[in-house]
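Quick one: structure tokens for this chain, please?
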Amino acid sequence: MALAVPILAALAALSWLPGPPGAAAAQGSGEPDLSPAARRLQAYVQIDTSNPPGNEKAGALYLKRLLDEAGIASEIHEASPGRASLYARLKGSGSRGGLLLHHHIDVVPAAPAGWEAPPFSGAVRGIRLVGRGTIDDKGLGIAQLEAFLDAKRSGGLRSDLVFLATPDEETGGALGVSLLLKERPHWFAGISDAIGEGGLVETIVDRPRLFGIEVQQKGALWLRLSASGPGGHASLPGPTEPSLRIARAVAAVAGKERPLRLESEVERAFRAREGIGKGHPAAGDLKRRVKNDPARLRAELSPRDLALLTDTIAVTRIGTDSLAQNALPRTAWAELDIRFLPSTDPAELLEWVRATIADPLVKVKVVFQGAPGPASPESDLSDAYGVYGVIRKVLAERFPGVAVVPDVSPALSENRVFRTHGIRAYGLTPFRLNYYDMAGIHGQNERIRLDWFDEGVETMRRIVRAWAIRP
């Protein structure tokens, strides 16, 4: 997912805006009355679409049933057995470009250990719905669906409106948007703009201080390192054992910092955040310190801000084929998740990895490579690029005093694919989210507050109305 990370921790006991009907009684009883949208999200989360293996067709069929009930025709495209996308379109007058609402059906796997409720139970704990996908990315999907259904009821569309749910995003998206652009190009006919996952949310003591609209993101390079040897008894190790080679390779690459640099889109994003308050460094100061004081800057920046100034390297998995602690492995491997800045040449980055490892017996295989693509334009309501302006206007109306700014994401989403094909794409998280709940994305106890979810559903409805429905 394109990760939205609030900078400061929020306290979860207070509420700034009123919650959904019944919420006050619910907090006392521990059993809230779920809104229709929240019940749909609960049912969606209960469908295990962990990728691998995916099984997104089950989620697509669920969404299709909801569309059928509303009298909206939809189409399912199965890229391979069980790996399906869902598409539906509402026709407008064509007086402005079509808007596509996109989310991915698949979720990262979730081991149940450490969860306060089973990850696919959709359990309610206090004022929160717990489950894998509540934020990444089924919560956004249901918010978009509710806006889509609302548009159908309202009628009078001046823009085509497309609802699209796709598989395989969490492992690179080979079966998702990229494939559909080749095999179902008519699904994207007339589409000028898209709203997908991503963006930045900063919530302090339950008050949203900042919403970032994602206009560009970093690229991704996933690598698998491997080495092999004869194996044997662990009492007779040698200096060239596969596990030692991999350990040295991982230490060399992960232990070497890539240089800092401030790119133009990132600089604009930091400049838009100036004056918001603590935790937002001035763009001019960053530019000076990137050149003159990089070591101290690395120590002072938040992990997210630092990730926007450099290529990052994460070691995600390490293993061997050894079946016993006293047996030397014949093969060893490690996997790296590298996220690179838009101006980084991935071919040069790959050569840098090989040169840093400096071991010809360690093989380096590219598992996935995703280019960041161009940036989507920022705009005002008067511009042809009105979606950005509409999002900004609605958020400002919903949350008086909040800063709404462009954002560059350190993560990767399929927004990049839309942009590469000439569709202006914007990453948006319409929900208030705090630091603790955001920590559940790709981790334990992914969850969302029910009142904040319902609030975000209404935000998405208003955005779609403002863009697609005639005044």
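The chain has a mean pLDDT of 91.
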